[in-house]
Amino acid sequence: MMQALTDHLWQSTLFCAAIWSITLAMRANSAAVRHWLWQLASLKFLVPFSVLHSIGAVAGLSSPVESQPALFVAALDAATPMVSPAAGLDSAAALAPSGLLPILLGVWLLGVTWLALRWLRGWRAAVLISRAAWLAPGTAPDTYVTDADIEPSVARVFRPVVLLPAALLGRLSQAELDAVLAHEREHIARHDNLKAHVHHLVATLFWFHPLVWFIGRQLRDERERACDEAVIAGGHDPGEYAAGILAVCRHCAAVHSQYAVAALAGDLTQRIRDILKGAAPASLGFIRAFVLSVSTLMIAAGPLVAGALDDAARRRELAETNARLLRDADIALNVSIDSPDEGRARVSATGNEVTIRNTSMRELIALAYGVDAHVITGGDQSLDSPRYDLHAKVGGGVTDPEEFEPLALRGAVNRLLALRFNLELHVNERCQDPCGPRALTMTDTRQSFP
Asked: What is the value of pTM for the model shown?
């Protein structure tokens, strides 16, 4: 448990560092893009790479275990996804007092409880204020006026509304009011309340990690800058807009809320400077947009691919283990009593027995060499009739019978074909070991799983 948490924390930290470096390279571009990048850094704390790794392992690789080319096998051997740099600390951790974990858990729960109560109290206060508010005359139906001593803000995650303090209305000119309202409506269009609450969840669960609070500050700054850029792009006068923000600041700077997307969030000094400049952000451009998209896909797909590779390596190791066990198995081959029309061969593994029912010699050959049955040529009708039942008894039992790979039977079936049918199989004109009559004297060359 602690090892998994440690892995998740250092992976999230590295991910955040990568996002930070990207945002630094994009300082001249749109704040909306940077905000989304920081949102990804926040969401990373909720989605461990191990989860994506497990999804990739469940999906697996569609190709058979041992039919991969040598280059792919080497890649499997080299793949060691999600190795923790703290792995070398296991022996030291084992010496830690057994009471340390409950203490750490108790401290974490206290922090979570305190932050969750603050979050809930702020959310409830915003809902109560919005319920007591009334529609602002002469404005859009999503704008409400309240007697509460608040700053202009957006309340509620679902069906959000703009809240304006009644005492502020007479202090703003129409142009200033329109610009401030445009800013708040941009928050609604961007679903910023929902995004902010998602990060509140992250901060509540991972309150002990300094980077979580750093991400929160970056999210607030970039969120406000993104809305400021949208207001200026919408045609509002930068001077009037800045004057409106300053009027709001003079009126209610002391009542800033941390639990609503509000007008005074972010770095006000830098915001005013950027607004008065009135310069549009630089275009992202095709190359940067392409690199950013590819990088995002690689980050998401990387653990999925690693999980698939890891699962293929695990299945390969399992098949190799069972192949070694089956090498010395007691194998019986009998004519099947099932109808040939019942379909293809059925392989099952239970305990110390592996069974292939209703199979033909052609299918056994295909199994032994990992090919499709239709590519096998030569021979006569005996390749397809009669059909057989194969029973292999393993002394110690097979490993993980529920995940038994039929291709683990390859070596055992190869020997059976040579010993029982005196069969020679040629691949690229080369007789495969054990090769026909020579198998009777080649007990030391039993084929193992490749």
From this structure: 0.58
